[in-house]
Design goal:
Number of helices: 9
Helix content: 10-25%
Bound molecules: ligand MTE
Largest sheet: 8 strands, mixed
Order of helices and strands: HHEHHEEHEEHEEHEEEEHEEH
Radius of gyration: 19 Å
Shape: globular
C-alpha cells in the first residue's frame, strides 16, 4: 500500500468460485470441524495458478464450539461471486510480516494466537484484560459476506465469521465521555518479522480508529473466522475488525487493545501520509487518491485475459445503510 499498485502480473488466474461450490465446501468443513478434524487439514480450495496448498490453521475449541451455533448467511452480497479461498489467503496486506502480498501467508504462522487476550481501557465501565473467548462468549457468530475494497484499487468478496462490534461495545459499557474507539495490533518483533525490518516505515504498533457511531453501526464486525473456518493468521487472527464501507486499511488485524477515548486517535496510515490517507477512509469513487483514481477497482482474481475491472461504488455499495453517518460532512475534506 505504501507506494505501489500491484502490477497486473501479481494477480493469479483462477476461476471465481460459484457460491454453491463454496457452500458445499463449507458444509463439509462444518462437519469436519465438529468432528475435530479441522486441525491441520489441508486447504480444500485447490490452490489455483501460482498459489501454494496451505494447511488450515488449527481451530481452538472455543471456535469449534461457537461454529455449531453460527448464523449462516446473516448478511449476503447479492449478485457477487465469493473470492476463491486461495486468493483471499495468499494475496494479503499485513505489513507486520513484510511488504509483499505473499509475505503474510509465508510468515504469519510465526505469530502465536492461542491463548489471546485483549486489553480494554480508557473511558469504560468494565476495563480489564479479557481472554478472547470470554470477550465474545455471549455473542453468536454470524456469517457476513462483504465486499472488501483496498485503497490500492483491488477488491474481493469475503464470507467473514464474527460478532457485531456493537456487542462488544455494549458488553464493556463505555462512558459518555468516549467519542472514539481506538484499536491496536500486536507488536511482537520476535514473531512478526516485518517489524524487525529497518526498511519498514510504519511506527508500530499498527493503530486504527472509528467514531463511536461508526463502531455501533450494525455492519461493523469483529471477525474471528472466514470461509466457515477459523481466521488464518495472514488475515488477522485471532481477532480483526471489518468495516465494509471503508478502505481495507481501516480493518485492523490481530487486535490486542481496544480503547475508548475522548479525542480522534492518531492512526497509522493517516499519521504517515495525511494528504493520502484520511481518518474516515470511506470508499468514494469521486475522491481520488493523489496518485491514482479511485473510480474503478480490480476484482480479484483477474486472469491473463481480463483484469476484471469494475466501477467502484460509493461507500463500497453500502451507501443506503451508512450515508446518514456522514450527512453533515464534506467527504472531499474528510476523506
Ligand atoms: N492490519 C495490520 N495490523 N497491518 C496491516 O498491514 N493492512 C490493512 C488491513 N489491516 C494491515 C491491517 C490493509 S492495507 C488491508 S487492504 C487489509 O488489512 C487487507 O486484508 P486482507 O489481507 O485480509 O485482504
Amino acid at each position: 500500500m505504501l507506494i505501489r499498485i500491484p502490477a497486473r502480473s501479481d494477480c493469479h488466474a483462477s476461476e471465481v468460485t460459484p457460491e454453491a461450490i463454496y457452500r458445499s465446501r463449507r458444509r463439509f468443513l462444518k462437519s469436519a470441524a465438529l468432528a475435530g478434524a479441522a486441525t491441520g487439514m489441508p486447504s480444500l480450495a485447490k490452490a489455483s495458478g501460482q498459489y501454494r496448498d496451505v494447511p488450515d490453521a488449527a481451530a481452538p475449541p472455543w471456535f469449534v464450539g461457537k461454529l455449531q451455533d453460527a448464523h449462516w448467511r446473516a448478511v449476503v452480497a447479492e449478485g457477487e461471486a465469493i473470492t476463491p479461498y486461495p486468493d483471499a489467503t495468499q494475496y494479503n496486506n499485513f505489513y507486520e510480516f513484510g511488504p509483499n502480498k505473499g509475505d503474510p501467508a509465508r510468515y504469519a504462522e510465526e505469530l502465536k494466537v492461542e491463548p489471546w487476550s485483549v486489553l480494554i481501557d480508557g473511558e469504560v465501565e468494565q476495563p480489564g484484560r479479557y481472554l478472547l473467548e470470554d470477550l465474545i462468549a455471549e455473542s453468536r457468530l454470524e456469517e457476513r459476506i462483504y465486499r472488501l475494497r483496498c485503497v490500492e484499487a483491488w477488491s474481493m468478496v469475503i464470507p467473514w465469521l464474527g460478532i457485531p462490534l456493537s456487542d462488544l461495545v455494549q458488553k464493556v459499557r463505555p462512558l459518555s465521555a468516549a467519542k472514539f474507539v481506538r484499536f491496536e495490533t500486536a507488536y511482537r518483533p520476535d514473531e512478526m518479522r516485518g517489524t524487525r525490518s529497518s526498511f519498514a516505515l510504519i511506527d508500530w504498533p499498527y493503530v486504527e480508529g472509528l467514531r463511536m457511531d461508526e463502531a455501533m453501526h450494525p455492519l461493523s464486525l469483529l471477525a474471528v473466522g472466514m470461509y466457515g473456518r477459523v481466521l488464518p493468521n495472514q488475515n488477522g487472527a485471532p481477532l480483526r475488525l471489518v468495516v465494509p464501507w471503508k478502505y481495507g486499511f481501516k480493518s485492523i488485524k490481530s487486535i490486542v487493545r481496544i480503547s475508548f477515548v475522548r479525542e480522534q486517535p492518531s492512526t497509522t496510515w493517516q499519521s504517515m501520509a495525511p494528504e493520502e490517507y484520511g481518518f474516515y477512509a470511506n470508499v468514494n469513487p469521486q475522491v481520488s487518491h493523489p496518485r491514482w483514481s479511485q473510480a474503478r477497482e480490480r476484482r480479484l482474481p483477474g486472469s491473463l485475459f481480463s483484469a476484471n475491472v469494475r466501477e467502484t461504488l460509493l461507500f463500497n455499495g453500502y451507501a443506503d445503510q451508512v450515508a446518514g453517518l456522514y450527512a453533515s460532512m464534506d467527504l472531499t475534506k474528510d476523506y
